[in-house]
Amino acid sequence: MRVAVLDDEPAHLDLIRRVAQSLGHECLLFTRGRDLMHQLQRESVDLLIIDWHLPDITGVEVVRWVRARIQHAMPIIIVTNRIAERDVVTGLASGADDYMTKPLRVMELTARVQALLRRSYPAAQRSIQRHGPYTFDLHARQAFINGVAVELKNKEFELACCMFSHLGRLLTRGYLRQTIWGSEVEIPSRSLDTHVSTLRNKLGLRPEQGYRLISVYGQGYRLEALGAQTDAQ
Q1: What is the mean pLDDT of residues 205-222?
Q2: Which residues are CB-neighbours of 153 under 8 A, at least 6 positions away?
Q3: pTM of the model
Q4: For residues 231 and 211, is the Cβ–Cβ distance under 8 A?
């Protein structure tokens, strides 16, 4: 998953980056609130860790902006030197999901990140994912439609699981390339489009199956569930 960290102290940025990477997540680092806000309008992020005190805007203001402007309700941890009860209440009331005081403790930060991601993305934690007629066995890396196996190549399977784990959410092209191929892998510009088209055809992701995989011009892709019968089980 992709974690964005906003803090103007290099030592804190490095500590959080190391924790996120040790858990297998990509980490995006920002030192100014407005830079993060600009990036969130262009790229998908799974978790935000935001410092209260910043050079250009407060972390609380950033959290409020995110809740007002970003459709995806991503989990947010706010970190600060403030320990008064009224500050904790202000941070959580602004829209943050968790509150941590500095100095950050590695084991506690690790546990809080893992707990928030488990609660926010439960489908991604299960070894068997079921969505309407679709079943994905993550251990066997096998996909089924109404119990019938569908042959998916490795990247196609990973792409399908990623899309179904984030139903209704716009996933940017950069997010999908990093999640499926890794940040250090260069892929042809049309490779993602080809994989999406192949996946749409193999899984029949069309309204008659209860799902629709759409392209959002200049941004990325969104898999939508159509009707109550397609609710994830």
Answers
A1: 89
A2: none
A3: 0.73
A4: no
Q: For the purposes of burial, counting CB atoms within 10 Å of the CB of 50, is it exposed (0-12), middle (13-18) or buried (19 or more)?
A: buried
Stretch 35-43: mean pLDDT, rounded? Answer: 93
Q: Please, where are the H alpha helices in the chain?
A: 10-22, 33-40, 59-69, 85-93, 106-120, 154-165, 173-181, 191-203
Q: Which CATH architecture has domain 2-120?
A: 3-Layer(aba) Sandwich (3.40)
Alpha carbon distance 54, 98 (integer Å):
18
DSSP 174-211: HHHHHHHH-TT----TTHHHHHHHHHHHHHT-SGGGTE
Cβ neighbours, 10 Å, residue 196: 22
Q: Return the CATH number of 126-230, one of 3.10.410.10, 3.90.580.10, 1.10.10.10, 3.30.200.20.
A: 1.10.10.10
Structure tokens at 102: 């500095």
Q: Work out the percent of the chain whose per-residue pLDDT is above 90.
A: 60
- Do residues 26 and 3 touch, judged by C-beta distance below 8 A? yes
pLDDT-derived band of residue 229, with 50, 70 and 90 as boundaries?
Answer: very low
- Look up residue 36 and give its amino acid: L
Report the distance separating Cα 18 and Cα 34, nearest Å.
24
Are 43 and 175 in contact by the 8 Å Cβ rule? The answer is: yes
Which tens digit of pLDDT belongs to each residue from 124-158? 677 888 888 999 998 889 999 999 999 999 999 99
Contacts of 34 (CB under 8 A, 6+ apart): 56, 57
Alpha-carbon distance of 208 to 122, in angstroms, equals: 26
